[in-house]
Amino acid sequence: xxxxxxxxxxxxLAVRLAGAVFVLWSIATLIFFALRLVPGDPALAILGGPGxxxxxxxxxxxxxxxxxxxxxxxxxxxxxxxxxxxxLGTSYSLRQDVLGLIAEQFWGTLLLTVLxxxxxxxxxxxxxxxxxxxxxxxxxxxxxxxxxAAAVPHFWLASVLILLFSTTLGMLPPVSVPGPLGLVLPxxxxxxxxxxxxxQVMRESLADALESPFALSARARGESETGVRxxxxxxxxxxxxxxxxxxxxxxxxxxxxxxxxxxxxxxLGRSLLKAVTDRxxxxxxxxxxxxxxAFVLVTIATDxxxxxxxxxxxGS
Amino acid sequence: MLRAPHTFSLxxxxxxxxxxxxxxxxxxxxxxxxxxGVLVYATGDAEPDCLDPHVGGNYPQALLATQYLESLVSKNxxxxxxxxxxxxxxxSPDGLSWEFTLREGIEFTDGTPLNAAAVAAxxxxxxxxxxxxxxxxxxxxxxxxxxxxxxxxxxxxxTAPDSALLDSFSMPWLGIQSxxxxxxxxxxxxxxxxxxxxxIVESWTRQDSITLVRNEDYSSAPEDAxxxxxxxxxxxxxxxxxxxxxxxxxxxSGEVDVIDNPQPNSLAAALDGGEITALLAPRPGxxxxxxxxxxxxxxxxPRVREAFVRAAGVDEGIESLxxxxxxxxxxxxxxxxxxxxxxxxxxxxxxxxxxxxxxxAGWTERDDEGYRVRDGERLTLSFPVSTNQSVPAExxxxxxxxxxxxxxxxxxxxxxxxxxxxxxxxxxHEYNLVSAPYTKVGPDVLRILYHSDSTVPAPSGYFANLAQxxxxxxxxxxxxxxxxxxxxxxxxxxxxAQEIVLSGYYAIPLYDxxxxxxxxxxxxxxxxxxxxxxxxxxDAWLAR
Lengths: 316, 544
Hints:
The complex is a heterodimer. By secondary structure, chain A is an all-alpha fold.
């Protein structure tokens, strides 16, 4: 690549990274103030929730220890200062380092979401190809499937899959077990709705691509129909789906809250649910920030992929 | 004890639970216990933040602590106190001093000997504000000081006689831990508390499971255990599966051996026979009730309270929503408490009487929607419902109650809330009706729930007397009962006290707070400890 090209890429990256930092700071600020609007005394959350018999002295001690007796502006600056050095604080309910807790749960959720994204992509490609190639009836069935898949809620899908594959057929475990078998149902539950959505997007651009002049000229060169699809059309069709994958990843993280709870899988989603019900402000903040960071990084990555897949974007 | 959030059911009412029996397995038919194997227990109760039940003190902690901690005394199925870690005890004639003599030769699993100093350290730990004990701290409220008399004898001096002291010491929240382990500090002790129980906490994978292994030196089984020696099981894998449908599916597929908190339909299926069996264990203390807040209108008028109780037909709802797995209760105490007074006469449905009472109380007019109105104000009742504590069937029951009381002109507004917001509504007195279960061993729970002292909030805002009952006669009865060691007199006092609560229409009893367990086809010898109905696996074995 010529020097000017490399410089352009670097500048693009720098702009994106600066944007990412701004996004993270905004999110941290938003969460900080939003969580102060939620009813419930943080000092009580630290001392075992609102049902506790904590004494006035114990409450005062905790407020002092966690800096809750200081003005909000001071608390905000302290919190941001800590974030700058990567300190996410101590969980109220678990009395452990938030960063350590997240590190423990992060990989499980990452594995789940990445596998679900990959599965969704494969399913969507299959569906879109079927929908553009098959007979009229086949097309109708495929697009109906896409709509149904895109519309089903995770918790319903999870219970149907458990009923079918665990209770009735006895093929797969209904709860997470070590090894790949325990991952199948959670991944499929997360992937199916997304696959329906991605397939709808891909089908349209695939159909457009197959009718465009470059497909016609490829066919004229004697390229087989499969060749036209694999070498030319799919690449085109994938573009909007790649752009959507950043968004999709975000939706998978929120879907993980439901899926991890139903399938009893350890992970960030389940931690977040517990942290919210416990009013565990540092843990909620930590998980939200890490999810936001993952989201931002994936968006940058998909934008980069877009540039690889679509040479037109490289100049801009 | 405050019931902690449990049974987070996402699928809940939507899922159609499979009627098909799960796996088929070849079961050993012999009744001779088999050694070995790891039992998998799946709980729907919340994952505790701390495994030391002295810290806080909720039900999920009690479930776990029963496996590795033991108490000074226990109870048998008849409700009699049994010796456990304490071999014997004496109460001084004035009731102000107790001496406990401990069993000899017992060691904690870290090698520390069980002696008077160890028990004294536990009491100090419970009473230390830094520990943050709620249940244990309240139970030991009258204990002023401890004195080590000799190696195995401990004296407790009280500020007032306490007829509930032995009941209190039987609870898992007052389980005795190794003093050496307690000194390691809260964070370490929360992750690996050390006791004398049949199992030892080996490891804890957050949000997933806790691994418990057999205590190879176990020698302190209570008198009513089926056998004396070591546990049969190699260990227990304690899993957290919050969703009730998943939990049941895991039991059916053989992934787990025992589950708790099943949905009523799964429980009814198990009770009908089949490979999966059910173990029902009512909790002691109070029954599940709806309290009527008597401190503010409209329930400050006893006629309105009676009208509501007479109009609230809940029998059919309980029968249909719980598939016949619970019995209607007419007592504010659990049916396992000997002193429970059952008074169905106050709860007979009578819509005419209800209408007449409301007319008499001045709620004579009705608005367009059929609700009663007085001085331009509608007869509205706010009912915050904790979605963490009320199972889906119970929430449906409240909806039925809303419909039945509408006939006589009540507008019940159900507010489903998460635990923190629910407590918030209670602390702010923004409720007319509320259902808040409370578990404590013994009838002294009445003092916590209905003594006027319990209307005074703790610094956290918490108060247990949600009916806001302030009756000096009742206060006197409850105080006297808690200081009386004569069982006959105590029973009489508690009966009079319950009569005041029931005849004043301060509460609608629903059913016993019940622990339900479903056991897989290979599981044998599981029983619930009669103290707070937590399961014990000391006698359990796997026929496979």
